[in-house]
């Protein structure tokens, strides 16, 4: 399948931070998490949606991939930050909501005892980002603080970012170019937080 073929390509990518493009490709994070889940792993997901919906048997979608990650035996827990009300659905037992106001303490509790972590960020969770799936209510500073806190307690073995705006026409409009520039500024901030 195309999904498995993309998984093979991602398996060959060097470890570190991967930019996946549109939020419609967030389910490819499953492959990136899986390659690091040979031993105990904590996963932090920042997303405007819960991504724990049911998918047809044998399929993983951008709306179901977090539930599939939760089924990986070596994934100890998943911290979910930023889903908006009505976008969460039923969460598997391993998935816990982290509320931004109490995020740092709750994050530390969830990751406690787990020395390895993976971070997946969909920019649709951010206020001021422009994605194909809308924008959320979290400030970038909140995400950066969570990343810093997690890096202080765990080895971050990998990360991915999605949420690019895809131009609607053959050429981007001036407004879309401005959105792309804003998203690129966010990408650079995330890169500095995750890779330095």
Short description:
This protein is of the alpha/beta class and 196 residues long. It is built from six helices and six strands.
Task: Name the descriptors.
6 strands, 6 helices, six-stranded parallel β-sheet, globular, single chain
Topology, element by element:
Elements (H helix, E strand, L loop, with lengths): L1 H10 L5 E5 L7 H8 L4 E6 L18 H6 L4 E7 L13 E4 L4 H9 L4 E7 L17 H14 L1 E8 L11 H22 L1
Parallel strand pairs: 1-6, 2-3, 2-5, 3-4, 5-6
Helix pairs in contact: 4-5, 5-6
Structure, described:
The radius of gyration is 16 Å and the shape is globular. A six-stranded parallel β-sheet has the order 1-6-5-2-3-4, sandwiched between helices. It has 196 residues and is of the alpha/beta class. 35% of the residues lie in helices and 19% in strands. The model has no long low-confidence stretch (mean pLDDT 90).
């Amino acid at each position: 399948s195309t999904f498995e073929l993309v998984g093979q390509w991602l398996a060959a990518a060097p470890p570190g931070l991967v930019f996946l493009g549109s939020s419609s490709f967030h389910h490819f994070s499953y492959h990136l998490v899986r390659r690091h889940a040979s031993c105990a792993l904590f996963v932090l997901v920042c997303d405007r949606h819960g991504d724990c919906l049911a998918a047809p048997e044998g399929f993983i979608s951008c709306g179901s991939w977090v539930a599939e990650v939760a089924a990986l035996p070596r994934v100890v827990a998943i911290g979910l930050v930023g889903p908006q009300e009505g976008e969460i659905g039923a969460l598997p037992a391993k998935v816990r909501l982290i509320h931004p106001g109490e995020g740092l303490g709750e994050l530390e509790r969830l990751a406690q005892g787990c020395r390895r972590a993976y971070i997946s960020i969909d920019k649709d969770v951010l206020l001021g980002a422009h994605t194909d799936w809308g924008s959320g209510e979290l400030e970038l500073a909140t995400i950066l603080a969570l990343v810093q806190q997690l890096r202080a307690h765990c080895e971050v073995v990998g990360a991915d970012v999605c949420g690019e705006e895809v131009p609607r026409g053959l050429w981007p409009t001036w407004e879309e170019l401005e959105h792309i520039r804003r998203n690129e500024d966010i990408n650079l901030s995330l890169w500095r937080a995750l890779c330095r």
